[in-house]
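Example S7 (structure tokens).
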């Protein structure tokens, strides 16, 4: 559609030039001239509408793609989804339509100039490539990619600082990180100013080249007109058409620098790895599943987290995963949840590849307790049920030793959950969520007793014992009390499974 509008724009330019040449030589205002002027105005409006709609659809598609990104850098993805996607607007609505017109209109003008005056057409043909050549030479000095890279690093680092602000305050590192953020912001500001300086220089160079090129045509035309070698109408037609040949290229060059950041962001978004949507297969049986990991490997930006892990978990069994921090235990649970796709290998659930299962249906059959359960705005009951209408909240709370907490609250289970909840109570709320999912056949626990005192740990362990019977369980554990709940113990070191030890 943009190509068709470009062809119509070229036709209207030629028609307008013919009408202006006739008007300026005493021919009067003609109907084709009025039609051409109206057509150029309408085509300009049409370009804006179509490119705007196209930009909206592209931005929506980019956001959906980025939200499905397999990247684990939340800060970078957040910057791409917001600033990066919005920055593509200047490229999609400004530079791209101008690029189409800059190809079609100069070609049409040159063809018409060849029929009007061979010498002028040759001058335009020789000088016209100077505009893109100089634009490329100057544009190479623009650091739009560096500017965007600095912005994404700043966004990612800032999000990490905000997330860990409490820890930074505890260890007295908040001021140092604030200085780092200021330094990164200053570097981005410097890169932006350098890009703007190059953009202004580019505009000056393009205007100068276009003006000199038009002068190379206009001056000889004037002398030939005075000598009688050229009639007035042909001279005016050439003088009107010549700037039209350079105008689209000047406009595209001027808009390129404004669109450079958006183009860089667009390329980065399109190159981002995406988790492909998984299609559902026939419904698997509900209940305790059997799990088989076949040479499963996971890497984060080239750094291996799991390396060819082979593991079999029979239905209804309980295994404990132990190992030092950073050995890949939490990554193993993320793979079983389906949150992190294996770089190689596969996970079989009752003999079916996990990637072929519908994510929503699989997660309905999983009870998961992370290291630090997330609490949402709302009541204690809604945090335990967590969107499960059939949840028996009092039973789950009683099983997780939370009934005493609810009894001491002014509104019981309907009391809003705030920051006053302790670490132990937060863990028990996470366990209560898992206990409320009575139909879940798989239990995944990620060190639920970490950072708890012995009394709270006993309460959590007691709730965990109520959670495990009749289910398949994978327990990430550091403390012996949690390991004692398992039938088997496996050890992860460096992302690899070590020989099994006795439970």
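Recovered sequence:
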């Amino acid at each position: 559609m943009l190509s068709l509008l470009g062809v119509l724009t070229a036709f209207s330019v030629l028609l307008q030039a013919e009408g202006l040449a006739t008007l300026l030589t005493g021919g009067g205002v003609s109907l084709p001239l009025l039609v051409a002027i109206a057509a150029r105005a309408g085509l300009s409006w049409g370009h804006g509408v179509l490119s705007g709609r196209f930009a909206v659809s592209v931005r929506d598609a980019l956001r959906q793609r980025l939200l499905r990104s397999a990247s684990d850098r939340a800060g970078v993805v957040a910057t791409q989804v917001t600033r990066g996607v919005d920055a593509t607007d200047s490229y999609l609505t400004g530079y791209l339509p101008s690029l189409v017109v800059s190809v079609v209109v100069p070609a049409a003008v040159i063809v018409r100039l060849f029929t009007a005056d061979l010498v002028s057409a040759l001058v335009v043909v020789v000088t016209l490539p100077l505009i893109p050549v100089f634009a490329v030479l100057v544009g190479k000095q623009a650091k739009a990619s560096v500017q965007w890279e600095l912005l994404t690093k700043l966004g990612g680092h800032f999000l990490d600082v905000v997330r860990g602000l409490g820890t930074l305050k505890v260890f007295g590192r908040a001021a140092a990180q604030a200085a780092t953020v200021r330094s990164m912001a200053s570097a981005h500001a410097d890169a932006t100013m350098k890009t703007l300086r190059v953009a202004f220089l580019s505009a000056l160079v393009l205007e100068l080249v276009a003006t000199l090129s038009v002068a190379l045509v206009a001056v000889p035309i004037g002398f030939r007109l005075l000598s009688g070698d050229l009639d007035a109408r042909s001279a005016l037609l050439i003088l009107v058409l010549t700037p039209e040949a350079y105008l689209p290229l000047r406009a595209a060059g001027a808009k390129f620098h404004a669109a450079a950041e958006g183009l860089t962001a667009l390329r980065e978004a399109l190159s981002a790895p995406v988790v492909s949507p998984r299609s559902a297969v026939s419904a698997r049986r509900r209940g305790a599943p059997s799990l088989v990991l076949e040479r499963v490997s996971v890497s984060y930006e080239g750094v291996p987290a799991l390396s060819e892990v082979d593991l079999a978990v029979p239905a209804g069994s309980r295994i404990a995963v132990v190992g030092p921090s950073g050995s890949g235990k939490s990554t193993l649970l993320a793979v079983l949840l389906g949150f992190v796709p294996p770089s190689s290998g596969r996970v079989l659930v009752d003999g079916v590849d996990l990637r072929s299962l519908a994510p929503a249906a699989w997660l309905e059959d999983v009870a998961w307790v992370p290291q630090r359960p997330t609490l949402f705005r709302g009541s204690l009951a809604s945090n335990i049920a967590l969107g499960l209408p059939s949840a028996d909240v009092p039973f789950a709370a009683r099983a997780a030793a939370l009934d005493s907490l609810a009894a001491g609250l002014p509104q019981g289970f309907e009391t809003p959950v705030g920051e006053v909840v302790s670490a132990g109570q937060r863990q028990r709320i996470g366990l209560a969520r898992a206990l409320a999912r009575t139909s879940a056949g798989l239990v995944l626990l990620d060190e639920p007793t970490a950072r708890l005192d012995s009394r709270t740990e006993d309460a959590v362990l007691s709730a965990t014992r109520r959670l495990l019977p009749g289910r398949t369980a994978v327990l990430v554990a550091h403390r012996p009390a949690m390991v004692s709940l398992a039938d088997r113990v496996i050890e992860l070191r460096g992302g690899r499974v070590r020989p099994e030890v006795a439970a």
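Notes on this example. The beta strands are 291-300, 303-313, 318-322, 344-349, 352-353, 366-369, 442-446, 472-476, 488-493, 496-501.
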